Give the backbone structure.
Amino acid sequence: MTPMAGVTDPDLLGDLSGLLTDEQRQFAALVRSYLDDQIRPHLSDWFEAGHLPVREIARGLGSLGVLGMQLSDYGCVGADPISYGVVCTELEAADSGLRSLVSVTGSLAMFALRTYGSQQQRTEWLPALARGEAVGCFGLTEPDAGSDPAAMRTTAHRTPGGDWLLNGRKMWITNGSVADIAIVWARTETGIAGFLVPTGTPGFTAVDIPRKMSLRASITSELILDGVRLPADAVLPDVRGLGSALTCLNEARFGIIFGVMGAARDCLTTALEYAHTRQAFGRPIGSFQLQQRALVEMAAAYTSGVLLAHRLGSLKARQGLRPEQVSLGKFANVSAALGIARQARAILGGSGITLDYPIVRHLLNLESVLTYEGTHDIHTLIVGAALTGERAFT
Amino acid sequence: MKIAVCIKQVPDTWSEKRLSPSDATLDRAAAEGVLNELDEYAIEEALRLKEGHGGEVTVVTMGPERAADTIRKALSMGADAGLHLCDEALHGSDACATSDALARILAGRGFDLVIFGCESTDARMSVIPAMVAERLDWPQATFAAEVQVAAGVLTVRRQTEAGVDTVTANLPAVVSVVEKINEPRYPSFKGIMAAKKKPVETLSLADTGIEAATVGLAAAWSAVTDFAARPPRAQGEIMSDDGDGGRRIADYLVTNRLI
């Protein structure tokens, strides 16, 4: 075989596209071409302005079949986990904000409705969410309850007439202020329950969180529930306590395991191109040993991360994933992606901190991904408990 | 209405195109093959006509085995069936042989309309639609910016340097479209999954009755006798502005007939 020479596609080293079926490759190519045409040219402007046209993008992605693609029926595609994974990779290669939009819609709001919702709730909302004509969000985290969701203070009380009254606050809610519906988790007399809350209900307010320096091309809101009155059938009937909410999170975390490798790929591709073209001391900087070591470390971490994601994807398709397996994937791949982004940023020198290149955008975004959908520390301790049989937290 | 869309696999627009040293034909294996961009507009127009009038859309291509990917893409956009003329003997065919082959596989299949993109990004000759129409002895309406069909009559608007022509013809007819005509849709995941189950008929030369001696490189009416790689780009001309910079730039543009 002829040795490779001067590639800028990091997938070539491990022939990673060979992991995919034709159909998975076509899904990924379709999403990539849509993003290249419609989204990528605007990303740095949106990031700088702290803006994302969520509804327009949801309709675009919905028409391709991205939203809730891993679910079956109700207008969803019914794709396998690796297909969903490679689509998340393409989305996050553009921006973590886009993957967040899709994670929240498909893996959280739609997954919750599909798994725990009534027939009527599913029929009314899933097809519209799949087409991107409606937008959903998911309210679990609170200002004072993040890693410990059981400490949530949001309550749902039954009125004598059978209605529900919701009170409380939810924090860091992606899509919050643009959503048509929120899946809200609240404490009831009989345990934690999930509710389908139309965001137009009186007493529901969503306020965007300002001054974010990460996920700027993503809408993040605080939800305020002040005496939100819902009919009896607003509850998700098949929810069985907090575990149901955590099951949704495991779905979203699975998408992250693949997604962050997209951000890593974009950083590595950019760094490789830069190392080929940028000259110092009369030579391309890629000819220097220190730059080569950085690029090799990045390529090795990237290839390992993609392989881990695919292993978890095929396990999920065959037999489902245990929570500690999902945690292992998020722990390993978010760290790897952050490390790659930091190394890429250094290779680009000053250019690495401007929005003319995607690196600093990915780097800042990944700082959010490190702690959302389960913090890095919590995932560490979930894997730690699985290895030692000792739980470091309860 | 039965519509055929003739499509072509071309080297990716952004790739470096090379000629094979052995026979001076385009080295198609050296670059990723993609659906010719203008053909996407032809497919879109066919799908819109089908959505308005009913019927079915068949995509037709002549090309090597991997050109089947192009058919697959058209099917994932919503076309119903594919027809692939694939034979080693066709390698190097010129426009005369290509139009002959296409006309033969299009004839007798009951098509009401054949739609082409107005040119391919590799050959850029724009003659195939007209040649196919002549061989079929059907009317041709090329470079269409708008296509309508009513009561068996085709009406096409075409933008020319002099103005806008409105052309009518009886069906069956051949149309080529320009990129102004529509905005091609993206395929969808469901379209990609459905495409796997749609019928694609693959034909060899023997199936078409075309004699191998009349097609291919040896039968081409013109021959490439020699070629050389494009010389590297020369250093541009640097003008320093001594107060007359604007005039000198304008002169340069006029001299090079750019304005």
Observations:
- The radius of gyration of chain A is 21 Å.
- Residues 243-388 of chain A form a domain with the Butyryl-CoA Dehydrogenase, subunit A; domain 3 fold (CATH 1.20.140.10).
